[in-house]
């Protein structure tokens, strides 16, 4: 099992002439992606390259409910308490239900789409709640983009606006904010379009492969040239 970014890195692996990624993966019975949304492009790319489909774990014996757009879970797999932190336990565990901090959208048929973490992936801009993960998925469809992180950037009028940090596939190429907005304008509402953009050599991630968005906020706080 791995997070989607791990599988993305593996797709960049260039095997030696004696090996083949499809041959290597044939030895695995099951490959599971978890802890973050799996982009459709990565799902298809992995299947094309390896002949294997990535699976996302189904819930087993876990009860779900959505309150004020936040996902709550209950069941035998949910932890009992925070270690030596009764304040956090009282705040996050209520009557056997754990407040996950995940902001979601629930369809009429009950299916749940995770829009992001309330603390990091939901951008409150001019009264709108914008999912950074949704915007990241659309930006990754741009043919020049290798990696991306989207976050809220402080703005005197809107409170926060959408900022995008881009890693290009080809370092010799360029991509402007106007070009990115033009690519996205038919894919999302105008208020979701990035207002700020920077190009990076690499998006910083922790050991689990998750984007360190707190570190990235400082890049937009630097004075523009």
What does this structure look like?
It comes from Rhizophlyctis rosea. Belongs to the ATP-dependent AMP-binding enzyme family. Residues 134-210 form the AMP-binding enzyme C-terminal domain. This is AMP-binding enzyme C-terminal domain-containing protein. InterPro entries: AMP-bd_C, AMP-bd_C_sf, ANL_N_sf. This protein has 225 residues and is α+β, with helices and mostly antiparallel strands. It has three domains: 4-56, no CATH class; 63-116, Luciferase, Domain 3 (Luciferase, domain 3, Roll); 120-221, GMP Synthetase, Chain A, domain 3, CATH 3.30.300.30. Helix content is 25%, strand content 29%. It contains seven helices and twelve strands. Strands 3, 4, 5, 6 and 7 form a five-stranded antiparallel sheet that branches. Strand 5 and strand 6 form a beta hairpin. Helix 1 crosses helix 3. It is globular, with a radius of gyration of 20 Å. The mean pLDDT is 87.
């Amino acid at each position: 099992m791995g997070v989607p970014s791990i599988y993305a890195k593996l797709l960049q692996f260039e095997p030696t002439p004696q090996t083949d990624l499809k041959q290597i993966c044939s030895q695995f019975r099951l490959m599971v992606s978890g802890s973050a949304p799996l982009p459709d492009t990565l799902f298809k790319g992995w299947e094309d390259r390896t002949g294997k489909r990535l699976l996302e774990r189904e819930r087993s014996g876990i009860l779900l409910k959505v309150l004020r757009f936040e996902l709550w879970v209950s069941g035998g797999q949910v932890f009992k308490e925070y270690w030596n932190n009764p304040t956090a336990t009282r705040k996050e565990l209520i009557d056997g239900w754990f407040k996950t901090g995940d902001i979601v959208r629930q369809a009429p048929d009950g299916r749940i789409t995770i829009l992001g973490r309330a603390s990091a992936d939901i951008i409150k801009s001019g009264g709108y709640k914008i999912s950074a993960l949704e915007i990241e998925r659309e930006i990754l469809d741009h043919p020049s983009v290798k990696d991306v992180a989207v976050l809220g950037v402080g703005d005197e009028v809107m409170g926060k606006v959408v900022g995008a940090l881009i890693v290009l596939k080809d370092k010799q190429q360029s991509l402007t904010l106007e070009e990115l907005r033009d690519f996205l304008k038919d894919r999302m509402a105008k208020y979701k379009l990035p207002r700020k953009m920077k190009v990076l050599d690499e998006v910083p991630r922790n050991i689990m492969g998750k984007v360190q968005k707190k570190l990235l906020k400082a890049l937009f706080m630097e004075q523009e040239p």
